[in-house]
Amino acid sequence: MMIGASTDYDVLVAGGGNAALCAAISARRAGASVLVVEAAPRFYRGGNTRHTRNMRCAHDEATETLSGPYFEDEFFDDLLRVTGGNTDADLARMMIAESKKMLTWIAEQGVRFQPSLGGTLSLGRTNSFFLGGGRAMLNALYRTAESLGVEVVYDAEVVGLDIEGSQFRAARVRHAGTETTVRAKTFVAACGGFEANIEWLKEGWGEIAENFLIRGTPYNRGTVLKMLIDSGVGQIGDPTQCHAVAIDARAPKFDGGIITRLDCVVFGIVVNKHAERFYDEGEDVWPKRYAIWGRLVAAQPDQIAYIVFDAPSLDLFMPSLFPPVKASTLGELAGKLGLEPAALERTVAGFNDAVQPGHFDQTSLDDCRTEGIEPAKSHWARRIEQAPFYAYPVRPGITFTYLGVKVDRRARMLMDDGRPAANMFAAGEIMAGNVLGQGYAAGIGMTIGSVFGRIAGREAAALVSSTCPSSEAA
Predict the structure, then answer these.
(1) pLDDT per residue as tens digits for the range 134-144
(2) Could you name the CATH architecture of 243-397?
(3) What is the residue range of the signal peptide feature (predicted)?
């Protein structure tokens, strides 16, 4: 589809991922005319949603695809734990309450879920996995949106915003080599953070950001976010806070996705370029701690680290895209990694001496721990002594950033002075910092996107309807 010379819509949605589509579908079902402008080409549509696998929603009982209940209070406690309390509690509780409706609503939009998963991920009770993954989920949402009459344009980047006070008037959209002014009664920003903008990352992180890998889309450069902040929309979040995991150092600079993530940290030790351990690898179950490891590796020399383990652990975790580095001795392994062999052997020996007897249980917080060593390993501590030995090199993998725009319970953007914007809404990563001040729990990004996307679309359509009573339900 091409953007016409004269365009006028009820709702303009910037972005093409989960949050954007939930907003578009919600608005269209309420009778609004909707245009979605996606900066990526059609094949790469959907931002980071393409790389997702699941979403975390509260529910009161087991279902066909979830192994047990996950009550609102437990969800909130998990959120407080991973964020260290750095969250807007009112918004977070509202989001969690609304999430209970999302599993049904999202399925009504054509998204299918698969039976619960156990194993290393430990998410069978809390998280619903998309049948076919994130791309299948996206395709279902796009089919529904387009069948409802939502218009979608690809390779269409918002390059300018006409905002008077707190009132959105129009957007300049670059498409097919030309810029077109798109007018709309309401605007929904659902176009991600700025993780693909390395220069912006450097403003918070310094030059070490050059060594970061961007595991998500290269199209999230924060263009709309910056324009909104410059136009007086309230800002929230720390520019250095983000979803940052340890991913394979051999991954591409952009778009490596979920298959470059490594889930084996809890089963081995992690050392830096000096072959020294620097954090408790067994602090908690992996879904509640995997997103701290990108930041931990970022703090190490040259932003590089190595996950080291032995033969008994090889089949305990989900494999990634790249095979592990393999060797018959620790010294040989160190040589392949570019580490000092004596240093790695010394670190492993010290760790092995500190391991206490216990009953290993990969599915729970077991009693396998260390004593007399810093940092300790709290759980899943087993001696690393059975050849062959393995390792993965890892670097910080940035998924999305938390610096964003402030919103209220109706997904309305809040201006610098705290007033709600007249007709501007936000959903997804661009406002995730309201809920995620720091840290992450698996699947919560999709929860933020779908819940606030649905609210944003509903509220945008209601605003249009209140000013234009002739709107009819689609």
Answers:
(1) 999 999 999 99
(2) Alpha-Beta Complex (3.90)
(3) none
